[in-house]
Design goal:
Layout (H helix, E strand, L loop, with lengths): L1 H20 L7 H22 L12 H29 L8 H27 L1 H9 L1 H21 L4 H28 L5 H31 L6
Helix pairs in contact: 1-4, 1-5, 2-3, 2-4, 3-4, 3-7, 4-5, 4-6, 6-7, 6-8, 7-8
């Protein structure tokens, strides 16, 4: 029960934060729940469709190529693509998607649905230390990938220009950010024992990237709140 609590708590905290940042028109809880469940289904779909291919890339010639294949091929591309499919299907034509910040709210809900199931699986298997680490890193990272996806989805919906380009950006930037995040983790794990200086450098680069991810995500959130058509 404690492991389940640790797995779910960071998801709940971020969902509440994102929900209450919407100052002008709160989204229907039923639709947010539907988006969250869509995220869970996207995680299930990822497991069913891509788990058989998880050995692909294990025989890569070098650790950089192997880390790239695992980061983008195993994780970023399939996960973000399926999140995008469920997000688009659930909210694109829904009348409640009627202001800029909504894209972020729903995209983060889908992303955290995915992260919730993934977190439960990881933490119940690996224990409390992994749960605490993921609470501060992996779960917020999924939310921030969702911020990027939702930011451009709203631009596609409301700017009425470059709709296709912004839809592409919605998926592309989520994949890119997710891929870089996982690449640094995989490269660190695969290079363990090669050089203490390399390991230290990768840790520094990773946390710089996380800081940039947070800064960019929060700026996107604030920008779309300011663009809200319901701003008083």
């Amino acid at each position: 029960m404690m492991l389940l609590f640790i797995s779910v708590l960071p998801v709940i905290i971020i969902l509440i934060y994102i929900y209450y940042k919407d100052k002008y028109e709160k989204e229907p809880l039923g639709l947010l729940l539907k988006a969250f469940l869509g995220g869970i289904l996207s995680a299930v779909a990822t497991l069913l469709l891509f788990l058989p291919f998880n050995d692909f890339g294990m025989e890569a010639d070098n650790i950089v190529a192997g880390a790239l294949i695992k980061a983008f091929g195993w994780a970023a591309v399939p996960e973000e693509a399926l999140k995008f499919v469920f997000l688009y299907w659930i909210i694109w034509k829904n009348h409640n998607f009627n202001e800029y910040y909504d894209g972020i709210v729903y995209a983060v809900s889908v992303s955290l649905g995915f992260a919730c199931l993934e977190n439960v699986l990881y933490v119940t298997q690996h224990g409390i230390t992994v749960g605490i680490t993921r609470a501060f890193l992996s779960v917020p990272a999924h939310a921030l990938f969702g911020v990027a996806m939702g930011y451009y989805l709203s631009l596609a919906r409301f700017t009425h220009t470059n709709t296709s380009l912004n839809l592409f950006k919605s998926l592309f930037y989520a994949i890119l950010l997710h891929g870089i995040y996982d690449f640094l983790i995989f490269l660190f794990a695969d290079s363990a024992g090669y050089s203490p200086l390399l390991s230290l450098a990768l840790v520094i680069v990773f946390f710089i990237f996380v800081a940039v991810l947070w800064r960019s995500g929060l700026r996107k959130i604030n920008r779309h709140i300011q663009l809200s058509v319901f701003k008083g």
